[in-house]
Amino acid sequence: MRCADRIAGAALLAFSVAFAVGALRHYTYWGASGPGSAFLPFWLGVGMAVLAGMQLVGAVRSGVAGPAWLPRGEGLRRLVVVLAVTVAFVALLKVVGMILGTVLFLIVLLRWLEGYRWPVTLGVAVLAAGAHYLVFTYWLRVPFPVSALGF
Question: What is the pTM of this model?
C-alpha cells in the first residue's frame, strides 16, 4: 500500500488512543445510574483504534510503496492554499467573527481556488453562513465569536 496509508494509519491510531484515554481521564465511565459521559467516547476511541490498527497493519504488510503521499505541481499548490486559508480563518476568527469569517473563507476557496463565477460564489457563501447561523447560533445557542460589526 501507499506510504500515505501508513502515515494516516499511525496518526489515526495515536489520535484514537488519545481520544479514549482522554475520555477516561476527564469524564466518568460508569455512574450510579449506568453509563457515564465517558462511556461512548471511550468505545468510539477503541473502535477507531481497531480500524486504524487494521489500516496500519495492512499497509505495512503489503510492502508496496505506491505513489508519493504528497501531491506535486498544481495539487500541491491547491493544498497549500487550502491550508493557508484555513489557518487564516482560525487566526482571524475573533476579529472577523464566525459568520463573516465563513463568508470570506468560502469566497476565497470558491472564487480563487475553484474558479466559480461571482454570483455562485456569493450565493453559496451567504447561504452557507446563513445556515450556519440558523443552526448553531439561533437554534442550538452555541456562542461563536462575533465581529465588531455584531455578527
Answer: 0.62
